[in-house]
Amino acid sequence: MAADGLAPEKEQGLLSTAGRDAAYLARVLVGLLTPLYVTPEQTREQGYLNTEHFGRRLNNRSPRMDLTSISQRWLRDLAWDHFAAILRSPSCPRSGHTFDGTRRACTELSAFLEVRAPGGGHDPRLLRPQHVHDFAADQRLRELDGLPSLGMKGLHGKPSIVTAYTRQMVFTRTRRILLEALESGEAERLGLDRAFVTAMPSPGRIITRTRSPFSDEVAQALAAEANLQTLATCHDPADRGLRDAWETIVVTGRRCSEVIKLRLDCLGRYGGLPMLWHDQTKVGNYDAAIRIPEQLHQRLEARQRKTLALFATRHNRPPTPEERAHLPLFPSNQRNSDSRRPLSYQWFHRGFKAWINDLDIGRWVPHQARHSLATSLLRAGASLTHIRRYLGQVSERMAEHYVHLAQSDLEDVLQHVWVAGPGAANPGEILTDDLAPLTRERAMAIAIDLGRRSTPAEGGFCTFQPVVDGGDCPWNLNCHSCDKFVLSGADLLYWRRKREQWRLLAEGAPDDATADYLHAYFEPTGRAIDGLEKALAGLGLLDEAMALDLRKPQDYFHRVWSTAFRAADLAEAGHDEQDQDETTTDEQECA
After folding, report:
1. Could you give the CA distance from residue 294 to residue 298 in angstroms, rounded to a whole number?
2. In angstroms, rounded to a whole number, what is the distance separating the alpha carbons of residues 159 and 139?
3. Which of 336, 370, 402, 362 is CA-nearest to residue 256?
4. Which residues is 263 bridged to in the sheet?
């Protein structure tokens, strides 16, 4: 038996002679004794790291971090020192995602140097900036062509494809480790060329991976009663609670880990309303409660009774109050002698993925139910602050991932930040008072007020009350010369394009007199555009207005304003349909 684990041949011998239970016990004993008898310096020499040496245990991870895939000793030691610094810091992450990304980055660089660098990259004194440039070019080409990584394997040994996200992560993590070595003086001690370190490219534009909500067809398939019964009977024959957990995720929008780790006493009624208590902080504090529907409350009550019956069957007695306080709602059936171990996310994901494959509706993950609920709340009028509080987001920046499918309050303000149009007495005059100190709440109030007194026009909005109420325009729709015409924030790009067209037209005039006339003719509109830009800049909305990039602002309203019917035609169509129904009924009665 090795100091850091069982040798493969000895492990096979234990499996054949003593059985899997004995082998499991041996691995547990080795894991408990390793932090006592193996020092961190010894693990560094052997090419791995034990998180328990630093008083850390990552969620659902073994304490052992294998770094042997990094073949160059100098690079492996830099990665080890980087991990040790993270584990010693007070802001050490709870999951292993950060460590996985850095290990992948170092493995990618190691595999490339092994092939392309002199001596396999084992002597850092021989490395030059050109090797970094070649490494960056190789990563970009693999990303463009969808080629597999040199040193990484995915699930079940499949090649890991290089994507824009993984390429950016590799650049970010390798650059960080090399710069840390440069600042600490380790690079100088190793003889690593400073130009080699600084040649590592920056990641460039930040690439974020966000999940989209379920489409209507997928949501209906995932909520159909027949499909839910299939989920329970075919993918959870032991009735561990796969369907109950999934329905809780859909209804509440909780994270999968929050639902799987629910305590047995997670339900309660307060003022007659059913509530669900959960660990929203992800650090073991079950102090957050949300309201749930009565149907879900009854389903989880049935799951409580099943969990208590399972405990009584296993221990031949009901749980004591102390034991009940630590019982999970969804207990695991493996390595759970004290019944305190909940189901793992791997178990839940394995059953869910098999169910999705059977439904043949594409690739979806449980977390997209959270996005679907957030998007529905946003469309129903909830603010980002309310969504963030309900979903347990740390900041509004995290909740902003859900804005791309629903109109936000920022767009509402942007469409109704109004200035006087070209035909007004003072083109560009801001139709709000005191632009600079205008608060977001004040802007929202103005947007709601003005939004009730306008109708879309070409390039802006009409505020003439008879037209807003449905009357005819007395100026024959000559909007741009009318003082009732105003510009909104959504019109900025439209009018900027118009201004460029006017300037080109003036520059192509046959003589100076014609050019001066065109400039003077379009000068009021130019002042209106300048006023609109100042208004948006004063509210901090100029960048959002420039990002709209609409061909024309009325595209926001095409579903509402471009489809209309005459009342007389609708009445006549309804009368004809009623006569036809009566004729059909008479014919059926005669038959």
Report:
1. 6
2. 15
3. 370
4. 328
- Between CA 62 and CA 32 the distance in angstroms is 12
The mean pLDDT value of the chain amounts to 79
356 has a pLDDT exceeding 50: yes
Residues 6+ apart with CB under 8 A from 136: 171, 200, 201
Model confidence at 533: pLDDT above 90: no
pLDDT score for 102: 93
**Residue 449: its pLDDT value, please?**
40
How many CB atoms within 10 Å of residue 335?
8
| Cα gap 359→378, rounded to integer Å | 29
Q: Which one-letter amino acid corresponds to residue 84?
A: A
- 202: amino acid identity, one letter: S
Which pLDDT does position 2 carry in this prediction?
44
Residues 235 and 359: beta-carbon distance below 8 Å: no
| Greater pLDDT, 96 or 414 | 96
Q: How far apart are CA 195 and CA 78, in angstroms?
A: 18
Which strand (E) or helix (H) includes residue 148?
A: strand 148-153
- For the whole model, what pTM was predicted? 0.57
What is the secondary structure of 216-248 as a DSSP string?
Answer: HHHHHHHH-HHHHHHHHHHH-TT--SHHHHHHH
Q: Which residue type does 352 have? A: F
- Check whether 557 has a pLDDT greater than 50: no
Q: Helices 216-223 and 225-235 meet at what angle, rounded to 10?
A: 60
Q: Are strands 485-487 and 419-420 parallel, antiparallel or unpaired?
A: antiparallel
Q: Are strands 159-161 and 267-270 parallel, antiparallel or unpaired?
A: unpaired
Distance of CA 28 to the CA centre of its chain: 37
d(CA 162, CA 168): 10
Least confident of 71-85, 151-165, 175-189: 151-165
> What residues does 273 pair with on adjacent strands?
270
Q: How far apart are CA 112 and CA 252, in angstroms?
A: 46
Six-digit token string for 110: 């190691």
What average pLDDT does this structure show over 89-106?
89
DSSP string, 165-183: HHHHHHHHHHHHHHHHHHH
Q: Is the pLDDT of residue 578 over 90?
A: no
Coil vs helix vs strand at 38? coil
184-198, 224-238, 299-313, 330-344: least confident range: 330-344
Place of tokens 């339900």: 267
CA distance 487 to 532: 7
Number of neighbouring beta carbons within 10 Å of residue 258: 22
Cα separation of 1 and 27, whole Å?
A: 10
pLDDT tens string 534-543: 777 776 677 7
Bridge partners, residue 269, by sequence: 274
Kindly state the tokens that stand for 496: 């900027």
As a whole number of angstroms, the distance between CA 460 and CA 419 comes to 10
